[in-house]
What does this fold into?
Amino acid sequence: MMEIHAHTHTPRKKWTHYFWEFLMLFLAVFCGFFAENQREHFIEHKREKQFILSLINDLKLDTVGLESKISRKKTKMLTIDSVLFPLTKLENDKLPVAICATLSRVTLDFFFFSNDGTIQQLKGSGGLRLVRNREAVDSIEAYHNRIKRFMLRQEAGVTRGIEFENLWKKFVNGKDYFENMFDSTYGLRPHNPDNVVKIDRQHLNELINALIYMRNFDKYDITLIGEVKKKAVNMIGLLRNRYHLK
It folds into this structure.
């Protein structure tokens, strides 16, 4: 005889069971996604603050450099003032060696380079998107544009300096200048402050005009540099305030 085995039936699950299983799975995925999203936000905010701190440090260095540039410009203007009057009163083709020495230093200056490493990094790598504060972003971009314009003007100033040096070479008799300026044995200068140097008077008026132009150029530069420095100082204050930094 054939034996008939009874089949064991597993009780059918209710729809609520599947619902709760789906809900638990959904919550697990959602919580994982939320935790990862929060972690990314935390990392981005940390990077943002690091960028801001680095930017503030760059701005501090800029303010020091800009103040030094202003000081140098003021000294240069005083130097020009000290030689302009004697030049306008010159009646012969001889110039005191002391004035020649001063004129040879008129173009001495230093080229200001902005500490823009952080700004370049922010703009070049798309890091600027990390800066959430719109006011801070606008201020960063405005300062960067102002610095670029100032750098172009600074290059124009270098060109003017080269033009003046070329004019100076035509104005002063090089052999006579050397002999009166430098001691032939020790290279000390000068032998005597009252020594005079031969000059070419046909370039005198051109030289005076070049000095006046250079002085006015530097006078405007002092105002411009002051504005750039003020912008840097204001931006430091803004960033500290918006990011609650000391």
User: Anything to note?
Assistant: Helices lie at 15-88, 97-103, 117-124, 134-171, 174-181, 204-242. The longest strand covers residues 94-96. The chain has a mean pLDDT of 81. Strands lie at 94-96, 196-198.
